[in-house]
């Protein structure tokens, strides 16, 4: 075994991750800033250790000549100036600005705390990076889901857990729970919630849309009459095509209360355009109080138009039938 001719000295890295030896500065990983280190000095090399772990190795540089007028590499002023420029606090402080400009909020808030933890726990560079990126990913995912929910325009947030299964006299619970697997979304299929007023149709449609948002799907909740009025105004101003895109863009469109109010021929034509153009392009969750055989009355007694709508709506669809009295009227009926 060859003789180790190194001389060992105790040293410390400064806060700029530099170790000074014979007026030269040698870098160490940032995790070891301000840490006590061991320095093994060879004739042509310097090795730095932290608790017997090799963290850096450098070719040994000749010592600076401290005399003020020495030329060339021995000139202390000439050699130190670039290093001082590199370690100005102003440049170090640009990191928060860069992270803010890149909208990396987690990194901006947590990089220093995680660096301290990394030094204490002896993480390597990849582990430190993994923790930062993982935190940033989860934060951005959470913010994206919050935007999904906001853009969905739910009147109120409803969940499946809040639904009173015992209130409707008739409901296929397994069918509803299967819908919450959200497999209908990639299939671009539909779901129709059919039943009288107050049995929970809108609750289930909203809860299903909310669950879709949590899985990062785009959703829009809108009443059928609101769609017709919006498209009517857009058509008068020459912006029908642009307005239609608002209802074609989401992966899931919730059309609430179809059939509750009468629709004239023009309104029926506009609603047909939405349903027709979403066919096999995006999912529709629709609530209605009208059995399908009465849908001609919704579309201004135009049986041909009603058949065309139902053909596209029900081709890839599940119909959830609910029966019972209004949940909102239960206190009055109890009396």
Structural overview:
The chain has 335 residues and is an alpha/beta fold. It folds into three domains: 7-90, no CATH class; 93-147, no CATH class; 153-334, Rossmann fold (3-Layer(aba) Sandwich). 44% of the residues lie in helices and 18% in strands. The protein contains 13 helices and eleven strands. It has a five-stranded parallel β-sheet. Strands 1-4-5-6 form a four-stranded antiparallel β-sheet, with no helix packed on it. The relative contact order is 0.09. The model is unreliable at 72-91 (pLDDT under 50).
Secondary-structure blueprint:
Layout: E1 7-12, E2 18-21, E3 24-27, E4 36-41, E5 45-50, E6 53-59, H1 76-86, H2 89-92, H3 94-101, H4 105-121, H5 125-152, H6 173-179, E7 190-194, H7 201-214, E8 219-223, H8 224-236, H9 240-248, E9 252-258, H10 265-278, E10 283-288, H11 295-298, H12 303-314, E11 317-321, H13 330-334
Parallel strand pairs: 7-10, 7-11, 8-9, 9-10
Antiparallel strand pairs: 1-4, 2-3, 4-5, 5-6
